[in-house]
Specification:
Layout (H helix, E strand, L loop, with lengths): L12 E6 H5 L15 H8 L5 H4 L1 E8 L2 E4 L3 H9 L7 E8 L2 H17 L3 H12 L6 H4 L4 H9 L19 H7 L1 H8 L10 H13 L4 H8 L13 H12 L6 H21 L18 H11 L8
Parallel strand pairs: 2-4
Antiparallel strand pairs: 1-4, 2-3
Length: about 325
C-alpha cells in the first residue's frame, strides 16, 4: 500500500511592513548567516527594477499572535544597514506559523549548519557565545585555538591523527571540547596571555596542566610575565628554561607541527619541574628542557573530567 500523501501546504500569510519596523523584529542565533547569496548577487538584483519585489521579500516565522521572528534576510540587512545597498521603504514578508517545538527543532538544525560552514576560528567564537564565555584576551577571544584543543585532548593536531582508529576517527566536537575546558580557558584568559608566548603548543600544555591542577595557573602567570630566573651559577629555573626554548625556536628550521608538539612536551616538563620546588636538584638546569611523553597526562586529565570514553573528544 502506498503511503498517503500529505495535504498541500497552506500558502503563507503576506505582510507589508515598513523597513524600519522589519529591522526591529527578533533575530535568532542563525540569522546572521541567512541569505547565502553574495553581495554581488544582490547588487545585480537591485540593478534590475523588475526584481525589486524579489529583493525586498523576506520570510518571517510567527510563534503567536504577537511574536514574529526573522527567518532570512541576514545578508540583505547587512548590505542595507551598511549602505552597500539602498534600503527599501517597505518589506514584503511571507509569514509561516510554527509551534514552539517546531521552531526549536528548526533553530537547532540551522544553527548547527551555520557552525559547520564557518571557518574554525569563527566556529570557536560562536561556541563561546553559545556557552556564555566572555573572553577578553587577544590570544583567546579571536578563536584561534582549534589545534591547541586537539593537542590538549588527543596529543596531536587533527592532520596527524589516525582517522582509522576509533578514538581519532571523528573530529573533535568543538562545542564539547570548549565546554569541558571552559574553566581553564577562563582562568588563562584572566592572565591576558601574550600571543607570542602562548603559541599553540604552549597553550595546549597550559589547558592540560591547569585542568590537572588549578594551582598550575601560577606557573603560567609567571611565564606570561616573563618571570624566569637565573641563579648566580648561571643555572635556569623551569620558567627561564622554557623561555629560552621559545627563543631558540624562532630561527629554527622545523615544521610547525613538530614545533608545536615539542613545545607542548617541553612546557609540560617545565611545569613538572616547577612543582618540585626550588630545593629540588632537578629544578635548576644548565641546558634547555627535555621532551616528555605527555599522553599519560592527557589520559589522566580526561579521566578526571569524566570524558575519557568520549570518541569525539
Amino acid at each position: 500500500m502506498k503511503p498517503e500523501k500529505s495535504a498541500p501546504a497552506l500558502p503563507p500569510e503576506r505582510l507589508i511592513l515598513p523597513y524600519e519596523q522589519w529591522l526591529t523584529i527578533t533575530e535568532p542565533d542563525y540569522f546572521a548567516q541567512t541569505d547565502s547569496s553574495s553581495e554581488a548577487h544582490w547588487r545585480a538584483v537591485q540593478a534590475s527594477s523588475a526584481l525589486n519585489a524579489y529583493l525586498n521579500t523576506v520570510s518571517l516565522i510567527r510563534l503567536g499572535p504577537d511574536q514574529l521572528i526573522k527567518l532570512n534576510g541576514g545578508r540583505r540587512k547587512q548590505l542595507w544597514t551598511s549602505g552597500a545597498l539602498e534600503p527599501p521603504l517597505f518589506i514584503a514578508a511571507d509569514v509561516y506559523t510554527l509551534t514552539p517545538d517546531e521552531f526549536a527543532t528548526l533553530s537547532k538544525r540551522l544553527y548547527t549548519e551555520q557552525l559547520e560552514n564557518l571557518p574554525p576560528h569563527e566556529m570557536v567564537v560562536a561556541v563561546y557565545k553559545e556557552l556564555g564565555l566572555n573572553l577578553s584576551s587577544e590570544r583567546l577571544n579571536k578563536g584561534f585555538i582549534t589545534e591547541a584543543l586537539n593537542i590538549a585532548l588527543r596529543g596531536k593536531p587533527r592532520a596527524q591523527q589516525d582517522k582509522r582508529s576509533i578514538r581519532e576517527k571523528q573530529d573533535i566536537n568543538i562545542t564539547k571540547a570548549i565546554g569541558a575546558l571552559q574553566e581553564e580557558l577562563l582562568a588563562l584568559d584572566g592572565l591576558n596571555l601574550k600571543p607570542d608566548i602562548f603559541v599553540t603548543g604552549v597553550l595546549a600544555a597550559a589547558l592540560l596542566m591547569v585542568a590537572l591542577d588549578k594551582d598550575n595557573i601560577g606557573f603560567f602567570r609567571r611565564l606570561n610575565n616573563l618571570d624566569g630566573q637565573v641563579s648566580d651559577e648561571g643555572l635556569l629555573d623551569p620558567l627561564e628554561a622554557l623561555l629560552s626554548v621559545l627563543d631558540s625556536y624562532k630561527g629554527k628550521r622545523i615544521t610547525q607541527v613538530r614545533l608545536q608538539l615539542e613545545l607542548c612536551g617541553k612546557t609540560v616538563k617545565a611545569v613538572l619541574l616547577w612543582n618540585q620546588g626550588r630545593d629540588s636538584t632537578k629544578y635548576w638546569t644548565k641546558n634547555t628542557l627535555r621532551l616528555i611523553d605527555y599522553l599519560p597526562y592527557i589520559r589522566e586529565m580526561k579521566r578526571k573530567k569524566g570524558i575519557h570514553e568520549a570518541n569525539d573528544l
